[in-house]
Design a protein that fits this description.
By secondary structure, the chain is of the alpha/beta class. The protein has one domain (11-197, 230-257): 3-Layer(aba) Sandwich (Rossmann fold), CATH 3.40.50. It has 7 helices and 7 strands. Strand 5 (142-147), helix 5 and strand 6 form a beta-alpha-beta unit. It is globular, with a radius of gyration of 18 Å. The protein starts with 10 loop residues before the first strand and ends in a 7-residue tail after the last strand. One of its GO terms (molecular function) is oxidoreductase activity, acting on the CH-OH group of donors, NAD or NADP as acceptor.
C-alpha cells in the first residue's frame, strides 16, 4: 500500500480522534507516515494529548491537537486553518466524529434528533466543505473520507435517527465525489459494523437496561460470517487504503467492514 515518502509528508486530519475508531485511524496513519491534525471535544483533552504524545514518541509524527465541536461550523473552519498553518498543507480529512442513540422513531425526542443531525450530518458536511476549500486552493488533489455505518446501508430497529444520518453520509459522499473529481479529490466513506469501541458498549448497555438482558447480549445478536466483533485497527486499515495512492481510482463509494453482516 502506498504511503508518503520521507520527503513528502502528507497531512491528514481526523475528527473524533480521542478514542475508538478515530484513535485507531490516528495510530495507523501515523504508522503510514502521515503528519496529523487530531480533533475532539474539550472534555477529551487528556486522552487526545496522550495519543498525540504517543504518536510523537513512537512514530516521530508531527501532530497538532485542536479542540472543538464538529457541529459548529466555525470550529471546523478553525480546525482546518490551524492544521494548515502549523503543518503547512492538507492532503486528507477523515470526518470520523459521530454519535448514536437507541430509540423507536415515535419515542425519539426532537432534541435528540437534532443532536444527531448536527453531529453526524452537519459535522461531516462542514468537514467536507472546509477540506474541499483548502484542497482546491492547493491544486494538488487529495482525499475526503466520511464515517458512515452499516446503519447507512440498511435500517436497524430502534435506530431510526441514527440510520437517517448515516444514509445521509452516503448521499453526501456520492454527490461530493461528483463535485470534486475535477480537482483530483476523491470522496469516499467507510461503513463499520459492530466494532469494539466505547460507542458500541454504550449501545449494548442501553439494550441491557431496557431489555433486562445481561451485558453483551445485544452485541451477540449481530451474527456475522466471521463470528466476532471487529477492532478499530481493522477499520483503520480500510481508511489507510482510502487515503493512499492505491485508491486513486475509487470515489463516491461507501465501503462496508462488518465481518459479513450485510452484502451489497
Amino acid at each position: 500500500m502506498s504511503a508518503p515518502t520521507s520527503n513528502e509528508r502528507r497531512v491528514a486530519i481526523i475528527t473524533g480522534a480521542a478514542e475508538g475508531i478515530g484513535r485507531g485511524i490516528a495510530l495507523r496513519l501515523a504508522k503510514d507516515g502521515y503528519e496529523l491534525g487530531l480533533f475532539d471535544l474539550p472534555r477529551s483533552k487528556d486522552r487526545l494529548e496522550e495519543l498525540a504524545n504517543t504518536l510523537r514518541t513512537e512514530h516521530k509524527t508531527r501532530v497538532v491537537t485542536v479542540f472543538g465541536d464538529v457541529s459548529k461550523e466555525e470550529d471546523v473552519k478553525r480546525l482546518v486553518d490551524t492544521v494548515v498553518q502549523e503543518l503547512g498543507s492538507l492532503y486528507a480529512i477523515v470526518a470520523n466524529a459521530g454519535v448514536a442513540i437507541n430509540r423507536v422513531l415515535h419515542e425519539t425526542p426532537t432534541e435528540e434528533l437534532d443532536r444527531l443531525l448536527n453531529i453526524n450530518v452537519k459535522g461531516v458536511w462542514f468537514s467536507y466543505k472546509y477540506a474541499a476549500i483548502q484542497l482546491i486552493k492547493q491544486g494538488k488533489g487529495g482525499r475526503i473520507i466520511g464515517a458512515a455505518s452499516i446503519a447507512g446501508k440498511r435500517g436497524l430497529p430502534q435506530h431510526s435517527a441514527y440510520c437517517a444520518t448515516k444514509f445521509a453520509v452516503r448521499g453526501l459522499t456520492q454527490a461530493a465525489a461528483l463535485d470534486y473529481g475535477q480537482y483530483g479529490i476523491t470522496v469516499n466513506a467507510y461503513a463499520p459494523g459492530t466494532i469494539d469501541t466505547p460507542l458500541l458498549q454504550e449501545i449494548d448497555d442501553y439494550h441491557s437496561k431496557v431489555g433486562g438482558q445481561p451485558k453483551g447480549a445485544w452485541k451477540s445478536t449481530f451474527q456475522n460470517s466471521l463470528g466476532r466483533i471487529g477492532q478499530p485497527s481493522e477499520i483503520a486499515s480500510l481508511v489507510s487504503f482510502l487515503v493512499s495512492d492505491d485508491s486513486s481510482y475509487v470515489t463516491g463509494q461507501t465501503y462496508i467492514a462488518d465481518g459479513g453482516i450485510h452484502f451489497d
